[in-house]
Amino acid sequence: MIAAQRHHPVQILFKIGRLIRNSVFIFLVLFVFQGDNSSLYVVYGRYAFSLFFLWFLVSSVLTWLTTTYALDDQRFYLRRGIFSKTDQSIPFSKVQNINRHTSFVHRLLGLTSIRFETGIAGEDASVKFEVVTQNEAARLETAVQEQKESLVSEVCTNIDRAGAAPETERVIRKPQEERVIHFQPTRQDLLKASMTSFSFLLLVPLLASLYYNVSEFFGLEERLDGIGSTLVSSPWFIALAVGLMILASFVFGIIHSFIKYGKYKISSDTQRVYIQKGVLSEAAFSIAKERVQAIEITQTFTKRILGLAEVKLISAGSLSMGPEDMSISSLYPFLPKKRAYALVTELLPGYRIQEDMNRLPRRALWIRLLVPSWLWLIATAVLIYFRPEFLGFESTWWIASSLLLAIVFTSRVLDFLHTRYCLNDELIQLKNGGFTSTLFVTKREKIVEVEITQNRIQRKFGLSSLQTVTRARPIHTSYLKDVPDTMASTFRHWYRGRMKEVELDNAN
Amino acid sequence: MNDFNAAPRHSLSPNAINYWRREELISNLIAFVVLAVLFYLDWRFDWYNWIGWILIGLAIIFLIGLVWSVLSPPLTFKSWRYDLDEEFLYLQFGIWNRTEQLVPMTKIQAVSLTQGPLMRKYKLASLSVETMGSSHAIPALPKETAAELRERIAHFAKIKEVEQ
């Protein structure tokens, strides 16, 4: 076993930096704004704050001193705890996906952070390295990946011995092959993205929150009132201000999307899928192809109009990288639909999405329209009871109620129209959703269990509902409601056939 | 190998009906005593009017529940079916909503057998099976069958898939 080592010492600085960022507000209140206030609360508050700060400094140094890690060719060995020690060993084979995140500060210092997500339940679900050098991160990543590759080739040789074609082995054994780049957004893609994501609307709340934060302390309102009243009197000035504001919003939105989606890169080799993104701070995500539990293709209302779609890879490990909006839960979120389907096939062999799927029978629509909408019933009851008057309108309540009913029905009809299903060899494709439609695709070996239900009304109509469960964090359940009974029994039969693809582990 | 397109073959223990009835009887008795005490207190201390109405509402719900608890055990018994082979556990149940569940043996992580005092009297046991996402229970099996099933499921579940 290799000697255990500590994390990078800069980790302490990062921790302190984060503390300062989070507590700067309290510090300002205690020491600057209330600086000459000598009431008991403030004085004790200062003591408490200083003590806390000191304790934090000491504890982060101690934590750093006592936390170590080591790895051999099979697993991580983690050790932590100042007083009570915790020893943990996590085999590489449990790692579901690898997330790497390089914030702007990380980049300035030539450092990065890396997380190995496992499918284990609970707090210790990931092996985190919050600050590591680029080289060390690369070493860790290859260690984990190589273990997996050796596993794959082992399986392959087993098959060979059983008398399968020998070519497959040669292909897989090839060391460190080139990654194929599948997608990089062009400037046009980015412009489209900035329009569909409505990021140009982001400037307004940002400015507003900034204004409120500042004005609370400096009494901006009174100062501005004087200037404001003179300016508002001129209509030209208002028009100019509004125009400038809109322009600024668009520029801001475009810059925002260029920064967020600018350097997107989706690539793959025979083993893994890689996603990279980010201009100022970078995030990278990689997952072994066979660890992809399912695929989800989502289209919101606006994306459908523009023919765009978002493709998500579902992994049993956690996908997010932390609190910032650097989480990679999806391949590029604004892919043209055709490109999205093609991309899935390119990245994951075996996932061939079939575009013409089965629709629900007409009687499924009737059943859906007949079911009472609890949302509408409760909302209407509340409206009748309170009789709110919007802008002095007495009939607000029934207008609101019928509007809601119309929305509920439209959504149900749309859901009926969008619902498609298809069993395609070992793949299952389920599509549903009202205003936002979701296509869920998975292989039957990835489905953990299935459920078929039928209520009394459905039995009259000869319809059933299906449900599949796949691994994810948390567990992912997909539904397909009101399919004909024949489909239900086909589905049962189809799922029974999963043993054809499943490999059994002979080790235990 | 069973043909799963036919309904699963095995049903619960016939004792289950009596067991459920007895169990319902006990809980109904407790509910009845609680309600009676509340009605008495309401009358004795002259509580607010609306409390009286709520109590009447509760009493109506109680009566409906009482009728249902007499009617439902045979229906529940009739609706329950289970089956298993070396690949799958197959459950089917539900009076109003019929539910069928198909759980691969290799995805079962734990099997357990529970037996309350009343169940012991009727020589019954319930078997629950835990998977990655949920848990499933077969509610009232003859004790020996349940023990045998537990062993079989545990044996089949030990064969693991290559985890991916």
UniProtKB/TrEMBL annotation, chain A:
Annotated transmembrane regions: 12-35, 47-71, 193-214, 234-255, 365-385, 397-414
Pfam families per the UniProt record, alphabetical: bPH_2
Organism: Planomicrobium stackebrandtii
Keyword field: Membrane, Transmembrane, Transmembrane helix
Keyword RNA-binding listed: no
Signal sequence range: none
Domain YdbS-like PH: 64-142, 269-343, 418-474
Name assigned to this protein: Membrane protein
Transmembrane helix found in the keyword field: yes
Lineage: Bacteria, Bacillati, Bacillota, Bacilli, Bacillales
Domain of life: Bacteria
UniProtKB/TrEMBL annotation, chain B:
Pfam families referenced in this protein's UniProt entry, alphabetically: bPH_2 (PF03703)
Domain (YdbS-like PH) ranges: 78-153
Keywords on record: Membrane, Transmembrane, Transmembrane helix
Transmembrane segments: 25-41, 47-71
UniProt KW ATP-binding keyword: no
InterPro entries (UniProt xref): YdbS-like_PH
Protein name as catalogued: Membrane protein YdbS with pleckstrin-like domain
